[in-house]
């Protein structure tokens, strides 16, 4: 019995594609394509529907460039599990040169993906490409191509800001409580230091430095403790199961929680904690400024 299905044929450079999408790690059966390979990769759901396995042959029939017939037989090299159900049901990957031959379109491409190192480079890169090639090609960034995804990211960021705000408040009150206890317990010590001639301005400066030192010591200790943990989870993402995992798959994402070791993850938090510490440092300054030496000594 012959089984047919409409599919999406993608011509790829196996080496470059793997650098961008890490397609090789999604191969669940068989092997990944080699450069110039005459075989194909199938989505697992498509392979199941067509009842095909590794080393079986798939016949592709379609229409090529300028109405030319497109037909060919290709051995199945591997079966991949794509996180997007729609893609997994329709995906056929082959070497770009074989794809060009299939559709009678030598040296032609329908699209080219350019990967930048950082999201901040997307806008200037797009502007530069539009200036150079905009008259002949349509140049789109990922935000224009994935409006729904962009809205989901913005919604997730908004909820993340609220969560981080709550955590920062907890940290700030923790530091404030520590400083309040420190000032209350050392009131007599401050009185003695002022009584033997230390100026209030110098005492204020010393206490502020001590407050900053306490805050930065906590930040540095936290960074040192978190680096090994983050380094592990960068290479071993936490798999999401249940409804959360199913929701991620339905949106076309891999059901994993990924981590980052970007420097901004560390120095942004350190800067925020430093600002909190400086603000909290106002409390002991005001307390010392209002301090009465005789009252402090009697305490």
From TrEMBL:
Keywords: Cell membrane, Lipoprotein, Membrane, Transmembrane, Transmembrane helix
InterPro entries: ABC3_permease_C, Lipoprotein-release_system
Cell membrane listed as a keyword: yes
Biological process, per Gene Ontology: lipoprotein localization to outer membrane
Span of domain ABC3 transporter permease C-terminal: 166-292
Family affiliation: Belongs to the ABC-4 integral membrane protein family. LolC/E subfamily.
Protein name: ABC-type lipoprotein release transport system permease subunit
